[in-house]
């Protein structure tokens, strides 16, 4: 598997069938996701069960409580705007980071695409960390942030994770945060300082010129490493139904 580099980061693969992987092993795919941070597999014809089986071959499946499961593939959930009168709200975030063992990889399979709009945007958190001034990196290293399931004063579920996370497979370091309203406590800092620093880090992470913007095509599967990226859907100019199936690997 030799992905073609995307700009400003990410990799694209054509001619790979996840239903019949052939010469590429699950480990090859995991390594490609870790190396490129976002991996786009074009031209897939798999159904929900095949998609779920492919993800399960790469690691332990994970499901977020409260999501709507896919029929005949309960480890997957449905992401759709169908039936909504207002666009869904989406901000840059890391998937389900409020649990002790959050997802390493998330994947989306395109099911129904709108006539226009509906991109998914990604930011490179390794690049964000590398671009911080040295005093900032020194301040963040060895500190933990609290990730909550909702606004921090009302959330019932939360977990603590390192702000500077070393990828377990590559050793690459990245800034591990999520949307500030769910990530506003930092060990060793007052709540006021933690909130200020988290907001500043978040703004640096999502600078427009550094984002990979994925424009969906029929047959796309997109995988990303949650330890190295944040993402959001752009619902601002969607014309038509946008439905994807999501799976996660712990």
Describe this protein's structure.
With about 250 residues, the protein is of the alpha+beta class. It is about 20% helix and about 30% strand. The protein has helices spanning about 25-35, 50-60, 125-130, 135-140, 190-205, and strands spanning about 5, 10-15, 40, 60, 70, 75-80, 105-110, 120-125, 145-150, 160, 165, 175, 185, 210-215, 220-225, 230-235, 245-250. Strands 1, 2, 3, 4, 5, 6, 7, 15 and 17 form a 9-stranded mixed beta sheet that branches. Strands 14-8-16 form a 3-stranded antiparallel beta sheet. A 3-stranded antiparallel beta sheet has the order 10-9-13. The longest helix is centred in the C-terminal third of the chain and has 15 residues, at about 190-205. About 35% of the residues are buried. The model has no long low-confidence stretch (mean pLDDT about 95).
Features:
17 strands, three-stranded antiparallel sheet, 250 residues, alpha+beta, globular
| Annotation, overall tally of beta strands | 17
Multimeric state: single chain
- Flag low-confidence runs: none
Strand count, sense and closure of the main sheet? Answer: 9 strands, mixed
Briefly summarize what is shown.
This protein is of the alpha+beta class. The chain has five helices and 17 strands.
Secondary structure blueprint with pairings:
Layout: E1 4-5, E2 11-13, H1 26-36, E3 38-41, H2 48-58, E4 61-62, E5 69-70, E6 73-80, E7 105-112, E8 120-124, H3 125-130, H4 134-140, E9 144-148, E10 158-162, E11 164-166, E12 173-175, E13 185-186, H5 191-205, E14 212-214, E15 221-225, E16 229-233, E17 243-249
Parallel strand pairs: 2-3
Antiparallel strand pairs: 1-2, 3-15, 4-17, 5-6, 6-17, 7-15, 7-17, 8-14, 8-16, 9-10, 9-13, 11-12
